[in-house]
Every structure is written in C-alpha cells, then in structure tokens.
C-alpha cells in the first residue's frame, strides 16, 4: 500500500514539541499506527498491544516494561494495556520533557476514560478519521486553505468567488464522484481493485464485531448486533429517534441505545445536536447521525458498485455524509474550530448543517446535484430569517464545477473545493 501523507502530520509534530504524551484515537484501520510510525518512527520504538495475549508482559508488570525501553515510545492500542497509564503518569511527572510517549487507541470510552483519570494535563488527544479528498490525492500539505477557513475567518462578510481557494482536480486518481463515495476513505481501500473492496469491508465488519464489540459488550448476540450495524448504515444523515431503533430488530429501546453508544465509542458513528437559540432545548432535541465512512456505508447498504450507487435513493444521504465528514476533519485542524449542529424549524424548514463560531452562524445545505434551484436554498433563507442578527452567508455544497454566488447572501461551492 502506498503511503499518503495526512493533514494532521504538521499538527502532531508541533504538539510533540510541547506535550509529553500525544494520543491519537480513531476507528480501526484509519491509519493511526502508520501515521505515528511515519511521523515519529525514526526516533521512537514501536510496540503494539493485543487484547488476548500479553507477550511483552505489559499487563503483568508495566513498570518493568517501561524500565527496559527508553523514550520516545509509540504504544499502539493502549486500551489493551491500561495498566501502563499510571506508570506513564509517574514517569512524566518526574520528567516532563515533551515528545516522550505516542499512544493510539480505537475504543473511545476506555481510552478517554483511562487517560482522563491518569494523564489529565499531561496528554493531548487528537482524533484521526478516514482520509480527506486532499489526502486521497496525495496532496495533504499542498494547495490553498480549505474554503471553510476562509469563510470562518471572514465572519458575516459574503466571500467573492475570487477570494476563495481554487478548485483542484475533481477527484483522486481520476475517480468519479460515485467511485469516490463507494470506495470510501480507509487507507487500505485506496489501492485495492474494485472486486476486492467487498472482501475488505466484510473482514472489517467481522473483526470489529467479533473483537471490539465482544470486548466492550461481552458475549451478547453478535448476529443481531451485526444487523443493527447494517441498519444504522441506512440511517446515516437522518435524525435518530432512539425509542424506535430496536423495533425492526426485536430488541428493546434500551438495548438499541446501548448499542448505538458502542458505535460512537468505537468511532463508527457520531451525531450532531440540533441547533436552537435556547441552549436547554438543544439538549432535548433529536440528534442527526452519520456513519464515519461512505465506503463502509455503501457496504452495509448492500450497494454493489459505483454504477449501482448512481441510482440509489440514498445517494443524497451518502453524499451528505461525505461532505459532513470532510468538514469535521478540516475543522479539527483549526486552533478554534466551529461547533456543528443541524437545524429543523417547526414549520419543516431545515438546514443540513449549522456552523457556529465567534457568535456567528453559517447555515449549510448539501446537494448531490449540479443545478441549484430555489427550493434547494429555501432552508438557508428560513434560517437567516430566524436568526438575522447572527447569520453569516448561507452556503450550498454541491456537485458544481466552480464556486459562484447564487444570490448576494448565498454562496454555492464545489464539494471538491480546497
């Protein structure tokens, strides 16, 4: 597999000059180990921990393990050796030099809880997701700033087309939009022939369910959980009613909600809260959920090829999932990222996304089409009318060739921009 640079590389190198412990979290197979080895492997020894065996004796005697190895150290899948964390804490308390330990983990609950208890104030946590479009092109560190940075830094000012980054080549390696969505962004899929992608995702799901879920949830009904995972794939980019999740599978709402939390804890799923001017009401509204890779989404939805994807009723939801993921990944690079919400009014008007930073709100619509019509921007106009004093320009991200102003307050951007 060809290594492609990641946009997080400069940030990791910078953090390593200021913090003794760097933690990279993310789903299985997103490239955590490869990234750490690429950035720090020339100077750091690399150890990978296993959930079953303890060949290195780490769990039996973590202090002795660390005594045998000088820092810097790369310690992969740290959730399988939590006994190390108090020992690391003691070591960095005695010697707080930056760049000593580089940890990775693929189970959010266990990793974050353990680090929060043991390494608070000593570690910085960075999330790694599947690859961005720029990373897939092999151009992670090239080009102008992402459009999001330009717009957030401009506040309520409506950008002119000339001030935005220019659009690069439409898709990585000349792939069509449908190819790109169907393949997804796991590093291991990018160089695979199309006929082997189903094997990759079948293996991914089986390993995930039989190892991660079994460890977190115990020997529960794995077959039913696999069906639940597939169901959640079909619900990406939709509001989630937790009380209805289990009905189709014959499990209780409590079980379905617990399983959904497991998907979040293992970085397979995330939800955006609803936006409301009243912060209390934001907590009580329905979240809008997304699977964290479009290739996995297509596999779980039993979409057999890019050509089949082109005529799928859920094409719009898959495209929206891709754009939301791209925005999330780029926001993670900013010193002060924006909050992300979705919005639906009692009247039925909605915006797919709402960005909030510095007291300003930017509504965003995502459309898998090349011709934007008045009905496509109705939600943006409704949002701006509901929050006139706080709204920045409305944004449509779509399958257009180049950016343009739809109206004085609404900008249309290509999903490939930046």
Major β-sheet profile: 6 strands, mixed
Gross morphology is: globular
Mean pLDDT across the residues is 87
Return the domain count.
2
Which secondary-structure class do the elements indicate? Answer: alpha/beta
- Helical stretch count? 16
The secondary-structure element order is: HEHEHEHEHEHHHHHEHEHEHHHEEEHEEE
Q: Please provide the count of β strands.
A: 14
Computed over alpha carbons, the radius of gyration is 22 Å
Beta-strand share of residues: 15-25%
Strand order of the largest sheet: 9-10-11-12-14-13
**In whole angstroms, how far apart are the ends?**
25 Å
Helix content: 25-40%
Low-confidence stretches at least 5 residues in length (pLDDT < 50)? none
Overall description:
This protein folds into 2 domains: 9-128, 3-Layer(aba) Sandwich (Rossmann fold), CATH 3.40.50.300; 135-414, no CATH class. Helix content is 36%, strand content 17%. The protein is built from 16 helices and 14 strands. It has helices spanning 9-15, 32-40, 62-67, 84-94, 108-118, 133-136, 147-153, 177-183, 197-217, 222-234, 253-265, 279-284, 294-300, 306-309, 315-331, 378-386; strands at residues 21-25, 45-48, 73-76, 101-105, 123-127, 238-239, 269-272, 288-291, 339-344, 350-357, 360-367, 394-398, 404-407, 410-414. A 6-stranded mixed beta sheet has the order 9-10-11-12-14-13, with helices on both faces. Strands 2-3-4-1-5 form a 5-stranded parallel beta sheet, sandwiched between helices. α10 crosses α13 (294-300). The longest helix is centred in the middle third of the chain and has 21 residues, at 197-217. The two termini are 25 Å apart.
